[in-house]
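Weekly puzzle thread! Below is a chain. First person to post its structure in token form gets bragging rights.
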Amino acid sequence: MLAEALIAPAMPSTTARAGGVFLPIITSLAAQSDSAPGPSSRRVGAFLVQAQLQSAAHSSALFLTAAAQNLLALKLAAEVTGAPLADAWMAWFRAASVPALASLALTPLLVYTIYPPEVKETPGAPAAARARLQAMGPLSRPEQLMCAAMALAVSLWVGGEALGVPPVLAAMLALVSLLLSGVLAWSDCLAERSAWDTLLWFSVLVAMSGQLNSLGLVRAAADGAAAALAAARLAPAAVALLVNFCYFAAHYAFASQTAHVGALLAACLAVMLAGGVPPVLASLSLAFTTNLFGGISHYSSGQSAVYYGAGFTKLADTLRVVRLRRCSSRCADSAPDAGRHLRAGQPGGLGDGRLCLVEGHRPVLIVDARDSEFSFRTPKLGWSSILLH
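Winning reply:
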């Protein structure tokens, strides 16, 4: 999970991270424990796949540049609201850091509780990793240049606005440096079919959304929804929750997060704005939700198809894990506000400060936000805490 979060800001493709980095690692670790697709998958391989798949949604939401759909979401949001998000990279990180980091900590524990591996300890893994690193030797010159290019891109994405460097120029500078140094050849770029596919669809979806907005169709749909919301007398908070829920549930009809953003984000954002939701809150909440539904089914995203296609997990097990992971994500999203309300003695939040998630009649997660820590307990793992302030 930590490695996923560390490389996410410099590798803006969850599918590439899944298929090119983490699935080979998971397969190797599983093989060391005699776990393979089929009857032995539950030894350790199935758990590693589920934990990585469900955690990837939160690492993608943590950084603006961690997933392609994040950039598309902010682009479309700027067209609807008429004002781009200032200092976008840092603003995104500040807003996402608490819920995303809390969810990254909770998700592996929750998956371990409801989908535990048969092998609980792997004492030989550290020694095997050290031996493999020694066999690989030190970083080669192309590897060092690749690390430097990634660091350059992330640095310019974070502080480029102060220097007058747009995000696109930062990415191009990193790519050109790799081409000039010989780390990459142009044939390598041409072979990245998924990247060209994303570029093509981005241009089509952005142009389509812009035309729908300029023709007034998005505004007409928003006005109709706003009239219904006004008749229902819903508060802005209720509007935000309702629209985000509908936006999330609608993804079962999509096989691509990018396509979902292009089809529905502008309309949903217009509805939230008409319902009185602040523009920044509306834009970021929909963008974060776009990442959360990346693992809700075996077809919901590219990385989901990669992990499910490895053969370690069954569809029924995936849907069972997803159902409880959605609950934990909502708890983490509400934890900071809940803690503030409860410490101030205000009504609402999590009731008396505790929330119990059950599957059937068996408690699987107990959340306590009564103090300055967001604590959670599972019957098997005991208490753990995440400091909120």
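Puzzle host: Confirmed. Bonus trivia for everyone else. Residues 315-343 form the longest helix (29 residues).
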